[in-house]
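Let us begin with a simple case.
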Amino acid sequence: MKSLSLGFSIAILGTSLSVAQNVNDTVSLSELLVTAPVKVEVALTPMDVTVVSSEQIEKSTESSLLPILQNHVPGLFVSERGMEGYGVSGGSAGTVNIRGVGSGNKVLFMIDGMPQWAGMFGHSNADTYVANGVERVEVVKGPSSILYGSNAMAGSVNIITKRQRQDGFTGKARAMFGSYYTSKFNLMTGFKKDKFSAVVAGQLDRSNNNRPGSDFWLANEYIQLQYSASSHWNVGTNVDMTQSTANNPGTIQDPLENMWTNIFRGTAQLYANNHYDKVHGGVQAYINWGKHKLDDGNTPGTPEKNYLFNLTDYNMGFALFETINPWIDNDLSVGLDFQHWGGHIWNTPKENVYDPETDGAFNPSEAWHHENEVAGYLIMQQGFLHNILSLNAGVRLQHNSQYGNIWVPQAGFIIRPVQQSEIKFSFSKGFRSPNIRELYLYRPANSDLKPEYMLNYELSYRQTVCEGKLNYGAALYFIDGKDMIQTQMIDGSPMNVNTGKFKNKGFELDATWHFHSKWQLYAGYAYLHTDNKNVLYAPKNKLDISLAFSPDNFEFNLENSNIWSLNNGNPDSTVSYSLFNFRAAYTYPYKVPVTFFVKLDNIFNKKYEVVYGCPMPGITVMGGVELKF
């Protein structure tokens, strides 16, 4: 249940409906109705956007969003180390790269517009991005910093939660069981009466995982309340909480014992939206908080550590935003953002555990830190010739309590030469503020660090033909990254400094073809060239193909994912692999429809490693049943 980066208020899409949506699935306008807080309509910006629909999410039968995004968004790749769960302590799992940029939390995840990175270490929490209760996901490939500031350097992922639109009660329940004693349960129900609506959802996942010592457990709860105060205003609140425990056995080369992470994360927001003929916008207040406890583990045959690491963190703020239509075909968006983020770390002793390295002494290693950021932005788009041509330009000024000011410009244009055709060009700047660990914690820390930043140049084309049955697109990009934070030896000691550079360039292609009423074919390809040979989890070539067949009450889907030249941390070579997955489902059309399904992943039992030293599972089987009411 979640939300995105270049928020959408599709209500004023009237003049843009002739523009083909940059999506992998045909989505009608009614399905894109948005009632969550939004800043600027993505359809009116020159950015390259991919929308993953609720239909794609539901048909995948996945409980985590990240595998779904990887299969449906060209240029996006996620690192994995096992069948279930990502964790946050070691293992390099759950890193999301867009166009080769992402490690160090350079892709911003949001739930209904709320930033989802931890306030102390600045990282995302991949296990909290669950699929239950998600209406769609909007992925901006390229900097979104003009709207969202830090951490949207490489792009943004807005997870938009479901809204209850029909009167009365509706819902669904699903249970799944499969390989490695894996079980998954989720439930979602909604209610609407008059001006009030509510959605409640819950999810529970458990698995022994494909490697001994990698057991995983997760629970997620979500509630959303909304009230339409008038035809022009609606107010609402939502709360999303996740608890998880992930065990990590280390790598084959460097195994570990007693390494585990226990996480509680919560996020909540209050919002009010307005919509008038010439003005629409809103106000949003939010908080994202977490409590982590973990054991860093020990090498087999050595004593275990005599302490546990503890962390509490927070990321809170508010946003004010309005879009004004002062004259025909003009949109002027203005906004003000404030963020306060930080946290507390400390160690607690384990009873009856002796550490010979410290002669049993316990180091509390306690610290508190926080940062403040305030920003304002302005974006204008002007249409010409009945919106055949639209020009877009904007700027953001952000002030940080540690490094001062940073300017973020963006400019571009959209050309619609014929109906259902669109050409976009954009220039944009993205940045990432140094996190508290890089600034203040542990030996390489440097309190004088400046933000990392990159300049992005992008040209995209999208076309819909054959009465909407065929949708295809292409994108070219060039990225110039500077001031990357790296650790170097300064006067004989390691120190974090702004010294790294990189240049990425590439292209992406995708097409969705409904060539028959019961058949659909999708293909997405991404090519990446980077001058940074040390970048991890960013394949040079990525190709995803899926074929869907839906006769009567049956559904069959065959997926093929191909990765070439992936640096997975192996010092000797890159890796390539090809995976085939299959899903079959049958829906019994009763008063309460019942769907029975089975999912087979890696059906040819391919041996591969996304993270070096962490073998991925061979063929896995999951089966289950779903009720809709």
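The second case is a distinct protein. As before, the sequence precedes its structure tokens.
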Amino acid sequence: MPAFRGAASPYSFRYVPGPWMKSISVSKGSCTVKNGYESITGQINIEYLKPQDEPGFTANAYFDSDMKLEVNAEGNIHIKEGLTTEILGHFEDRFGVHDGNKDGFADMPDIRQVNLNNRWQWRSGRYIFHGGLSLLNEKSNAGQISAHNHSGSNITDPFLIDLNTRRFEGYMKHAYILDPERNGNIAFIGTVNMHQLDAEFGRKAYYVNEKCAYAQLMYETDFSECHNLSAGLSFNYDYLGQRVKTTHDPNVRPDHIRDREGVMGAYAQYTFTYGDKLILMAGLRGDYSSMYKWFATPRFNVKYTPVERFNLRLSLGKGYRTVHPWAEYNNLLASGRIMVVEQLKQEKAWNYGISADYTHYFGSHKFLLNAEYFYTDFKSQAVVDYDSAPGYITISQLNGKSYSHTFQADITWESPFGLSLTGAYRLNDVKSTYGGVLLEKPLTNRYKALLTASYSTPLEIWQFDVTFQMNGGGRLPAPYLLPDGNKSWGPNFRAFPQLNLQVTRWFRHFSIYAGGENLTNFKQKNPVVWSSDPWSNYFDPTNVWGPIHGAMAYVGIRFNFGRL
């Protein structure tokens, strides 16, 4: 099911508490057409805790040195045979403010969130039902916090950022097994959500009332052990009622903007499986958009295993995406620059990928090696342009080339003594055309390197986890001259390291953990441009490329109260 679209997309992971997640899976490159036409570079699937899991009740409390408190609770109840429910709760709040660099602005927003989720499953014979509701209320405050400005005079009109979010979501899945021997089944998925955001950036503002609905009817069957067919129909509807105010002038009223799109589609996908050696998957879907008319999405994937424990994968596919610029980039209103949104087309791109993985054993020691390369070629794209006109941020239609090359290699060693090590390196070459010139995409790391180590004692009483990450430098947007004669920022930002550590002590019904993040204490200098006058056109807090706050320590406790 698609989730966190439009106005929710910039904050999507903030709406999924970590203890609620059972797993995260990442599909890179072009994915199956069953999941829609929007996948361009891949998809992330979050699997929540399920009602049919083992019954019980767990709770988790977390507190860190930045004065953030978080409490999570989860209860799984098996009401009777075939009927189960899951109740999930989350609360977080930050007490006080943090201004480590003394620029008068909060280093991180003060977020107060209440998040509730209730999920159900009922199974009777060949029929399976899943359904659930979720509610979210969040307040986020940031901006100027100091009682005095840089000259020492009192601040009577501070620059404040306030975001108030209310979200409701409901979903249901109905499945009926038609032919167990051939895995023949039919299923219907439906989801609706309402997302309301009131965002104020000084006297600029963005208000949206978003309503989304999605439905999909699916059929799947095996013709034989080698041949599988999936087919289905889908419908997606997005409505965004928006009010946008792009100036601090109190006499200017917000503009009303409405985005409305309905998309109906159908797909078919054929899968050929030849033992453990070969899997071929070819899919095609056609969709009709009320905004962009007809378009087709082909996808092709191959997995080949020439020898045991060695896999080779190839992928080719096209993807499309409708851009809602104000919803997805409303944070840019915090900048003193003038924000201009031009007429945009539907984004579309081709993605090509190849990857290989190999598993090898030296006695009881396990090594996993992986290498992958993906190339994305954008044919149409919304481009956020800081470079062409100083004093402006323009979201415009791509006029030229835009592409990305991504290469990654990683190796993991798992020992029989509770120790595992992972090393990974990723190289990014991401460029787009800005004002007729092909340039690196700003604020994008040219590379990332990662080293992790995890160790559990023989009885799994203690667990130690260490992560070291090196974030490569990249390009900053073109600088402009400030009133004091200095440039707004340099042409590039530097590489920086980060170190995270966690220690966990396990007991029978609870565990205690403690750790730290950004223990290298790296902080981006002067993240807010022209912070002395946030009401001027030179003010810009939107070019953050690294951590603003320094080292942070935390402690937490988890409880498991067993069966209900």
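The helical segments are 325-328. The mean pLDDT is 94.
Keep these points in mind for the review questions at the end of the chapter.
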